[in-house]
Amino acid sequence: MPSNKIGKRVLIFSIIIFCGFIFAYIFLRKQHSATNLIEKPQPIKKDSSKIVTLISEKIGFENEANASTEKASSGKYSYKITQQIEYGFGVNKLVKDIPNFQTLNQIDIDLKCWMKKKVEAVYVLSIEDANGKSVFWDNKPIACNKNEDWCSIHFTFNINQEAIKPDYIIKLYPWNKAKEEFYIDDISVNYLGTEKINSSSSIQASTANFFYNFETNDGLTGTESVKETTAHSGKMASDLSGGKEYGPLIIKRVSDVSSGQLKRISASVWVYPLTDNSNVVLTASISNPKGESVFWDGKSTDNKQFPKNKWTKLNASYVLPFEKIGPDDKIQVNIWNKGRTNLIIDDMEIVYGESTDRIGNESTIDANTIYEKQFVPLKNKPPFKTIYFTKKEINTAAIADFTPNDEFVVGDFIKDKNNLEEIICIKDGKAAMFQYSIESKQFKIVSGKSLSIDSLIKIKKEIDYSRNGTFFKPSDVVFSGDYYGDNKTEILNLNTDWRFDAKLIKQDKEQNAILGNVDFKGYSNDYNPKYYEFTKILSGKFISSTKSSLIVISCNCADTDFKGKHCNQFENVPALPNCVSLYSIENK
Amino acid sequence: MVVFILFISSCNTNNSSNSTSLKCESFTLQNFNPITNWQPDSAKHKTIFIDYNNANYGFIVPSIKQLKDGTFSCDFEIKNNTSSNQKFYYKLYYQNESYKFPELDSATSKEHQFAEENFYGSWENTSTLFKEINVNADNEFHKIKDEFRIVGNPRNEERYIKDGINNRWQRNPRVGEYSLMLIVVSENDLKTIPNYIQDLHQKDKEHFVNPYYYYLFGEGKRLKNSVAIKSATTLKVIAEPNLGNGIYINDNVYGGKEYDKSFFCATCGQDSNLYNNAPIQQFINYVDASTKMNNIPVVSDVLKDNYSKMDYNWNKSFYTKDELIPTIIQTAKHPCQTVFSDAKEKKIIIKNPGTAYGEWKKESVGIITRHGFTYGKYRVKIKMTELLNKNNVWNGLTNAIWLITQGGGEWNYRRNCNKGGYQATYWGGPNDKRVPAVDYTEIDFEILKTPPYCPDNAFPPVYKNTLADNKNINNWNVKLPDEILNTDDKVTVACTNWDMACSEPKNFGIGCNPIDYKGQTYFAHRWDANYRALTEKKEENDDELFAGKFYYFEIDWRPTEVIWRIGPSPDKMREVGYMNDKITSIPNNQMLLIITQEYHNTKWWPGTPYSQDNIPFPANDIPGEIYDLTIE
In terms of CB atoms within 10 Å, which end of chain B has fewer, N or C? Predict the structure, then answer.
């Protein structure tokens, strides 16, 4: 009966909307950004500190007096621990010799070991005070996964910070408890601490790169020469005709443009000589708060090809005496018309410092293992393999207005012949359900299907975080699904604190194992989801009942203070237009 | 069969160049035919291709395969002008004319100081001085027949003799055109010819004297009863090795260590056929310790995977240090795995191997010739890998076609540097020891993505700083400077001569210095006075050089200049680099040709927009094909 059908539809939609509001309420209360996830602890303040290597030591035994030539993992020597040696080669470090030792909280050791059979030896960390009294002691078993061959061993010692005093000494050594015979080689010790990051120490690229087209006087001093004239761009330029000796001056405090050591300034300016033989100098100088000169250098157009009545660019790069430069020093970049000939300058660019160094600890990979084709990845340690999700060419028009601000619920709400999962999108307090049609290869708004509340509950799958604690972070978004379609469930862990960092994880009884980094392919141009500023992932069996896929909502945000959680003003960047796409792993 | 004889005589007043005979008081010569048994139909210009078979001990022109006895036959006719039977004496000389210093220094009217370096010779046995001929006083011409061949070390210099073995290969015959000169003298005149002219092995005051100078410009010109005929018939010697004749593997490049020989095959390996006849050897790059780098852990086919500048920028910014792969540039561990000689198509294929997770390697690949030359116009027809993809992102490879010293130490020393000396080693720093002579020489084509240094107003490019901030694309996806983007689809052809910082050339300079050649101005750049190499750069379209079926590259190495040319065909070559002995020390020792697709540490190339450690490892093999090599 038609009236009955209409009634059912109204009822279903009422339930959907009702459920939507319930979930919207839950999500808003939790301030969570995605919904087909598992409840997580509140995130800590992002990037408030990072782990850094304070100092590293490497011992290859090539120059050690007691080294053995019988075996070597690399080079010609190793250290042989014989039945007569109970305490083997020690690495001793005075705490005060470690830079920023106050933050020392971990020591990582990598070494190579060769043993005929399993030994009962341990590797010891001992911290002793100035009188030789032990204040901290820990040990780790020296265990190889193979006999009569070199194996890689990694130890992590967490240190009680109370055991760290400048005069204390850190001792690391193998303890041959059962007095057996084995060899060690290529010891690498990393002393790890933390480095705080806050807004004042993290200089944005935008505060290191400057461009002055002289259309406004912002950031400039000494702008008397700037006027409407022949210009390289716009209408305004600095006209140094009539014997004018100095052009506009740019003054910056070192701490405003660099958080660390300022090692270089690069600059360029366009020059338009009105006569032959111009001699204009692009200068950079630094003075301390007392007004004393710390640095001066300049690059001149003299004896270079700067033909008159033609714009020619002058580039310069100055290596700075960073050890003499303090945060309160002033940097001046200036144009000096040394030859006092008539000329115009325009479009000045200044880059303070160099691109920031990569974060993280140094790689512990032994290059020799790669060359000798013996590289064995350490479990849950980078580098990981790359697992590609490939874009599916399906019609996503119906879900094209999804944004990462929206909330979503994914589940098998409707009993359909294909057993596909549906998406409930909650946007601006309103919910709508979408389902993929295998027949028409497109997503559609659902109508006339029954909704199972049980299925909504079913999606709250539990994952045992206690087993995964080694690599999960509080700000992670975690999905589960059968991404290979092999009837096994994997975990997909996404963290976007610092980058789009998605990892596929195999659930394991002992410890979950990272299978690889997730990346994408099959997209047009540069539209890789990981490049967008604001990306949200939905995981579900959207197009197959046996295999999970990802719907990736990729947007850029125009908010100047965008923090990655909510965007007030989306921005459709031509090179990276906002989009919604579906990706899945291609079967081999 | 001589159609034209240029004759120069001290005793004949009627020395018309059109004359076919030459007369002096005692005798008359005619019909000097320096090569009668090779290309008899081509009287004026004869051409011979060097035989590479069994040439390890030095080239012989002609080889026994080319002429039955392995010698050129020559003859001339002589008539006794006196009334009594006479003994006359003759000697035959040859000299490479294409790559020589002039015998006469016009400024001093003396022998050019480097004319002794010219490649000249006579009969192989230098103790055979002048040959005696008895000519009756019968007013008849008598035909004199002889033979000769061109061999290495024609002066039998001790410099190339070790343990009693004359290593003629260490001073191989030069390519190019040869002249032939016949000297006939009377018995009295013979007595006045110095021993160092009669015997080419001998020196005068520690120096050889070029016999062409002696007879044509020096004392020999004033001999009363002598005739010197420099034949107008020339012999052009060309080297065109058959690239399908295989690739030899030299154990020495593996330092005596055991290595995998499982890829050896009929056209690549060490069997006796390849040892004797292969013109090419696999080249293993010297890997400098400075090539150590921490590479991004990305394996991708930059050329085929639509790898973009945004990909590059993201990968540059968003990997942590512990994800990077510590590596150095690799060389072939399995000889014959990445180089192939195709006997059917007479070509060589080289491949930088693709790599995978856990293997992570950037492996340079290349080949080197086995037979050295001094000077020559080296032209290769080649299809090397494209360097830029359709997004103009660089794949990290440098295509190189270069000459390198054949090594060997003293026998292969370049000419002494008389002002400050040479840097002792090519790998040392600026404070390396200075020495008067070294054997290191190198002339390069290196083609890669890097900006020109000159003119230096726009160098170095000003690159904006980047910041790994995933909340703002503009902080990490930073645009390259205009001066880089303006030539986005171009690669730089860097032309370099390694002069080992010898400051003897008159216009030795540092920084950017212009040099004009055929209406073009080139800028030669040297970083500082201790820098060992002088480089000129020209930006060229990557697609034109490497996207077509093939392209030609030519190094024209001459005694006083080096010219670099490229072009789509041998008749459409254009200059891209020029240097002469006024600005750089031109090598004069024996060198080999190398062709490589190699990975460089971009720290060697300041200002390069793509850093090698931020370029992915190659996912697939990257092939290059060498079709022809001509040295002439």
Answer: N
Which candidate from B320, B456, B470 shows the least CB-CB separation from A500? B470
Which tokens is B587 given? 């090598």
A50, pLDDT greater than 70:
no
The predicted-structure confidence for B213-260, as pLDDT tens digits, reads as follows 999 999 999 999 999 999 989 999 999 999 999 999 999 888 888 899
Task: Give pLDDT tens digits for A482-539.
Answer: 999 999 999 999 999 999 999 999 987 777 899 999 999 999 999 999 999 999 999 9
Determine whether A338 is exposed, middle or buried from the number of CB atoms within 10 Å of its CB (0-12, 13-18, 19+): middle
Q: Which member of A204, A500, A530 has the closest CB to residue B467?
A: A204
Can you tell me which residue has the tokens 């561990």? B333
C-alpha span between B510 and B490 (Å, rounded): 26
What is the 3-class SS of B552-571, one letter each residue? EEEEEECCCEEEEEEECCHH
Q: In B, which residues are within 8 Å of A208 by CB distance? A: 464-465, 467
Q: How far is B462 from chain A (nearest CA, A)?
A: 6
3-state secondary structure (DSSP) of residue A168: coil
* ipTM surpasses 0.85: yes
Tell how far CA A87 is from the center of its chain.
41
- Closest partner CB to B314 (pick from A313, A375, A531): A531
Q: What is the Cα Rg of chain B in Å?
A: 28
Beta bridge partners of B561: B580
Is the minimum CB–CB distance between B301 and chain A shorter than 8 Å? no
Give dist(CA A332, CA A489) in Å, integer.
60
| Side-chain half-sphere exposure of B123, counting CA atoms within 13 A | 17
Which of A48, A44, A52 lies closest to A473, judged by CA?
Answer: A44
Q: What residue of A is the nearest CA neighbor of B305?
A: A521
User: How far apart, in whole angstroms, are the C-alpha atoms of residue A152 and residue A143?
Assistant: 9
Alpha carbons B119 and B110: distance in angstroms, whole number: 19
Q: How many CB atoms lie within 10 A of CB B13?
A: 7
Q: What is the DSSP string of B3-30?
A: --EEEEESS-S---TT-SEEE-SSEEEE
pLDDT at residue B17 greater than cutoff 80: no
Chain B within 8 Å of A54 (Cβ-Cβ)?
no
**pLDDT tens profile A437-496:** 999 999 999 864 444 445 444 444 444 444 444 556 778 899 999 999 999 999 999 999
Residue contact B323–A354, C-beta within 8 A: no
Q: In 3D, which of B80, B83, B84 has the Cα closest to residue B140?
A: B80
Rounded CA gap, B616 and B354, in Å?
Answer: 11
Give the C-alpha separation, A438 to A549, whole Å: 14
CA nearest B282: which of B369, B401, B380? B369
pTM of the model: 0.83
Quick: pLDDT tens for A98-144.
Answer: 867 777 889 999 999 999 999 999 999 999 998 889 999 999 999 98
SS3 category, B348: strand
Is residue A191 a contact partner of residue A100, using CB atoms and an 8 Å limit?
A: no
User: Which of chain B's residues have a Cβ under 8 Å away from the Cβ of A314?
Assistant: 457-458
Burial of A200 (0-12, 13-18, 19+ CB in 10 A): exposed
CA-CA distances (angstroms) from residue A372 to A453, A536, B253, B333?
57, 41, 19, 10
Q: Which of A442, A425, A396, A357 is nearest to A581 (CA)?
A: A396
Q: Does the CB of A355 have a partner CB in chain B at under 8 Å?
A: yes
| H helices present in A235-363, as ranges | 254-257
**Cα distance between residue B322 and residue B390, in whole Å:** 31
Segment B547-558 shows an average pLDDT of 98
Q: What is the pLDDT at residue A279?
A: 96
B370, B283 Cβ separation under 8 angstroms: no
pLDDT at A22: 43
